[in-house]
Amino acid sequence: MPYSLLKRALLCLLPLITGCESSMETSSAPFTPTTIKVATFNVSMEAGNYTPRGQQPNPDRLRELLANGDHPQIRNIAEILQRVRPDIVLLNEFDYIADRSRGVDAFRRHYLMVSQQGREPLDYPYAYTAPVNTGVPSPFDIDGDGIASGTGGDAWGYGLYPGQYGMVVLSRYPIDTEQVRQFQTFPWHRMPGAQPILNPDGTPFYDDATWRGLRLSSKSHWDVPINVNGEQIHLLAAHPTPPVFDGPEDRNGARNHDEIRLWADYLNNADYLEDDAGQRGGLAADTRFVIVGDYNASPSEGQSRPGAINQLLNHPRVNASERPRSTGGELHSPDNPNGPYHTAYWRAQVDYVLPSAFGFEPVRSGVFWPVDGLELSRLIADRNASSDHRLVWMELRLTEE
After folding, report:
1. Contact 289, 235 (CB under 8 A)
2. Comparing C-alpha atoms, which of 294, 303, 319, 177 is closest to residue 248?
3. In b/e form, how buried is each residue of 154-167, taking b as 16+ CB within 10 angstroms?
4. Which of 282, 284, 288, 181 lies closest to 229 in space, CA to CA?
5. Helix (H, G, I), strand (E, B), or coil: what is residue 259?
6. Could you tell me the end-to-end alpha-carbon distance of the chain, in angstroms, rounded to an integer?
7. What are the boundaries of the signal sequence (predicted)?
8. pLDDT above 90 coverage of the chain, percent
């Protein structure tokens, strides 16, 4: 018997067992079936995307562009969101701006809440953002070039300035910000059986001090609780590093694999996990969750380590039966059987919306990829039009178990 039904049965029997009225709550508010649309979108809203090739990006560039509502790429991002209208969405590669009034709130005010090409404005009363590892200097020579420069490949996560490639959650439903769990600083070496990073001769790529100092998350891992009409769901958000841009040691492939594994172990309630506030363990059973993000890993394409994303796709607590697809992606790669499921222009499925098997029923899903030549294809013509990734969405019906 599912835990939720067992709990209700025990509460109903308690007065008979004790011979007196129970002081415990014997009924709860009626369950209200609700359907929500959850999405993930790598929006390429990082300063490097607005910088001429060969120049150093200005860390304040996104802040400047959000101060008014006239930047064409950001307007297109807003239009895509206004067309799909997700209830909850994770935005990857949205530079972290600590002053929300000049960051995520400016995006909402000057772009989302303004009609784009006649579309209905979109209001998200709730948002969450927090610092990430990208661009934050470390004291180590992480990229192995013999120099601990503190930036780029030697930052805690690759980035040319703190906050590059950050994350933002937007929601129509209340976010319990006090209960958010972050794993930004979790040390990689604490993961039992972490992926080995070896030189071609079999020796360790990192010395002991560097290995013990490395953080696992290239950006951060967030468990964001959201209240949907009295029912709590956990949005598990991350953006693992691409498994490329390294050398024969494949350090980024190892990190990508283990960043994905962190969520698999979180679903297994692994005791070794400790968040930034010191709380140990993972996510309790019979809990609704949705894993979202650009995971830079495909089940059948690309250069991620074997089985990296399958740690989530095949997890018993994950329902991966609904696979978002698009006709635009199919026509973009007509000779590739995986084309309909691609979520990036460079032909791979790397962006995911993965609901829990408990408490959700997938209804329908899709990838926003207009067919080339149609009017809306202007929104995804290239990375300067919007992004080299596509928005991925899924409608989910909340169920009692």
Report:
1. yes
2. 303
3. bbbbbbbbbbbbbb
4. 288
5. helix
6. 10
7. 1-23
8. 91
Query: What would the pLDDT profile of 338-382 be if each residue is shown by its tens digit?
Result: 999 999 999 999 999 999 999 999 999 999 999 999 999 999 999
The third-level CATH classification (topology) of the domain covering 31-398 is Deoxyribonuclease I; Chain A (3.60.10)
pTM passes above 0.70: yes
119 Cβ contact partners less than 8 Å away, ≥ 6 residues apart: 79, 82, 83
Report the alpha-carbon distance of residue 156 to residue 151 in Å, rounded.
8
**Count of residues making up the chain:** 401
Q: By the 8 A CB rule, do 349 and 340 touch?
A: no
Tens of pLDDT, residues 52-106: 999 999 999 999 999 999 999 999 999 999 999 999 999 999 999 999 999 999 9
Which residues lie closer than 8 Å to 340 by C-beta, 6 or more apart?
325, 326, 327, 329, 330
Helix, strand or coil, per DSSP, at residue 49:
helix
Report the half-sphere exposure of 299 (CA within 13 A, side-chain side).
13
Rounded Cα distance between 290 and 40, Å, is 11
